[in-house]
Amino acid sequence: MESEEYGDANGLAGLLDMHRADLLRFLTARCGSPDEAEDIVQEMWIKVSGQAGGPITNGPIANGRAYLFRMANNLVLDRARGRRRSMQRERNWLEAEGGGVAHMPEDRTDPGEPADEIISREQEAQVLRDAIAALPEGAQRALRLYRFEEMGQKEIAEVMGISRSGVEKHLALAMKRLREALVGCGAFDAAASMGYGERSGGKPRMEQGQ
Amino acid sequence: MKSADDQILDEAARWHIASGDDAMDWDAFTQWLEADPRHAAAYDEVALTDGLLQEHRADLDAVAESSAELPAGAEDSSGEGADIIRPAFGKRLRWAGFAIAATLAAVLAIPQFMVPAAQVYETTGAAREIALEDGSTIMLAPRSSLTVEGRHQDQMALSGGALFDIRHDPDRQLTISAGGLQISDIGTRFDVQAQDKRVRVSVVEGKVEVRSDSLAAPVRLAAGKGLSYDAAAGTAAVAPVRAEDVGAWRSGRLSYDDAPLALVAADLRRYAGVEVAVPDALRGRRFSGTLVISDGDAALRDLAQVMGLRLSGSAGAWRLEQPAR
Fold this sequence. Notes:
Helix content of chain A is 69%, strand content 0%. By secondary structure, chain A is an all-alpha fold.
């Protein structure tokens, strides 16, 4: 027990301890709830202390810290994703139950999976497909390299012959446009997001441009 | 005019893109999130969008590929943002103004997503003063190295010795890792000596907090206290230190109170540039007193004399021995 703890002195568990306060602060800002932040740090603790001798025992501190923040950020995202899915299912179920109009009944053909799930997933794919096609070429190409070819931003800059910040801008624009398209079709109405969609919903969306 | 929501989404998208990079400034991101509750919501949507994109990757790949095989030259040659103003697309012209404003606003609002690269200071025979941006200073001992990282220059790693003179700033907390210890400072003046897994922390002014996995609880050191930590032996001891002895290496003196000989030898190597071997049997022997280090060989002779040991060998390869009785 002692030796294991000692072996992890420069590892993730030690780093987690060291940066606990910063991580909690980040997570609280990120999920808006100190309790959930605590929860996630606990989850991280289980993860990092489970992997004996952690994966980056001799990495520089700064990278280990970034690794932990990324891990925290991903855990928050996993939760948001799960919440969105289950709320979406619930909503679709309620609509179907209450005789409300569910989406695209003609798509409801495959009996293998819950129909509502299939519909929303197909819709999502379609919306994304259209939104990608409508992107300016630079942003579209950068996005394709980033997410479909899995290139790093530096590599994309080289391939496209533009600066790093140019790549960043292309990707940010792409993400923003895709988000707009998804919001436009109500993909986040049931999301975990704290009413952002509703708040901006009343205003004209000037960049939607389609 | 660009709406505030749009501005937030720009920032959220850029933070999300930056988060894939090792150099992401997580502290600045935290501050951005804290600044406005809408920030987290916007970020969630952008990140969820990217998540969906990756989930549907297989379905989308073909489409993206077919439409991306366009000549890229025209826009790429003119660099960043050039795709925004392209007359060939009637629609795009209409909002070109917004897009340009968006680009400018993004640049002004969040100039820095990345942490500046780490700075590494290394000394050989002479000490060196390092000035931090906030006015704090660090005197780095000879044969030592210090890495300074973080947006606020608040993450450091030390090997060797250094005297820290840190200005109090409630918004940042300096953390120094040295030989398995994490030392946090709250605006103060203190000295750290770290050799292998042996660390000494001596506080002249203010207070520091010392943590380690091998310590049951953090140790708070007030002015006039010093901590000797030995990771190999698993020991940590707090004892009083004299203010005038802390950092005295700068004026050519090393003072000890009941210090193990191995540690004194390591200091002589660092501060006086003199190599001396200490046999295992003598490593734990205790020394109290002051050594003048302007002449390393002389300091070594003084040490041997005070300890009743014999100095054998020759310059460059000294050896301390127990004299035969």
